[in-house]
């Protein structure tokens, strides 16, 4: 599968998930946005973003809950709704990184186990091709997974990814390129097993 094919496959899979997770309700543009509005409209999408990063639903929900708690603590400092959503997205990425660091530390002291906790309904909703992409994402290094998930699931630009992940735009480009190559290899290996 050529690299452009891997990119199209990732874009199709994560774009499909993004469309499924699009907020059903929007807030009234004339009314001030409340924390409750943001929670109701954006919570599930942020949970799915975290699931793609940490590969565990309960942990992802904890990460998102912490992001909203942090937003609540900093509510008075925010400029507008867009700043609040950016804050939440960055908090979810940073919280996911912390989870992965803690997991790595724990694995150094405890033998690793091969449990991947995806919900049955989340996998049932995906086609075989989409499942292969999500499984391959799980074997990528955290930063590569972050960049691909933020780009293709989050629908973010390179600048937005750089801001959310705390890296430069050039690093976003090179990481995305390496991630697509690694994803292509992982999918090819999975097909041959």
Automatic annotation (TrEMBL):
Q: Which Pfam families match?
A: Sigma70_r2, Sigma70_r4_2
CDD domains per the UniProt record, alphabetical: Sigma70_r4 (cd06171)
Q: Please verify whether the record's keywords include Transcription.
A: yes
What InterPro entries would the database entry show?
Answer: RNA_pol_sigma-70-like (IPR039425), RNA_pol_sigma-70_dom (IPR014284), RNA_pol_sigma-E_actinobac (IPR014325), RNA_pol_sigma70_r2 (IPR007627), RNA_pol_sigma70_r4_t2 (IPR013249), RNA_pol_sigma_r2 (IPR013325), RNA_pol_sigma_r3/r4-like (IPR013324), WH-like_DNA-bd_sf (IPR036388)
State the family it belongs to.
Answer: Belongs to the sigma-70 factor family. ECF subfamily.
Q: Which residues form the RNA polymerase sigma-70 region domain?
A: 38-104
* Name of this protein: SigE family RNA polymerase sigma factor
DNA-binding in keyword set: yes
The alphabetized UniProt keywords are:
DNA-binding, Sigma factor, Transcription, Transcription regulation
Domain RNA polymerase sigma factor 70 region 4 type residues, every copy? 131-183
């Amino acid at each position: 599968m050529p690299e452009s094919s891997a990119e199209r496959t990732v874009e199709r899979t994560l774009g499909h998930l993004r469309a499924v997770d699009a907020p059903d309700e929007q807030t009234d543009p004339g009314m001030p946005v409340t924390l409750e509005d943001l929670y109701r409209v954006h919570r599930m999408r942020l949970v799915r973003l975290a699931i793609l990063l940490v590969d565990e639903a309960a942990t992802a929900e904890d990460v998102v809950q912490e992001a909203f708690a942090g937003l609540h603590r900093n509510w008075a400092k925010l400029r507008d709704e867009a700043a609040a959503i950016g804050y939440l997205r960055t908090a979810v990425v940073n919280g996911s990184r912390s989870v992965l660091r803690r997991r790595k530390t724990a694995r150094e002291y405890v033998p690793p186990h091969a449990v991947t906790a995806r919900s049955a309904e989340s996998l049932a909703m995906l086609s075989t091709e989409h499942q292969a992409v999500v499984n391959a994402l799980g074997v990528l290094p955290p930063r590569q997974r972050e960049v691909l998930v933020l780009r293709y699931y989050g629908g973010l630009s390179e600048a937005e990814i750089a801001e959310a992940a705390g890296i430069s735009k050039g690093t976003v480009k090179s990481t995305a390129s390496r991630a697509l190559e690694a994803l292509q290899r992982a999918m090819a290996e999975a097909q041959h097993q």
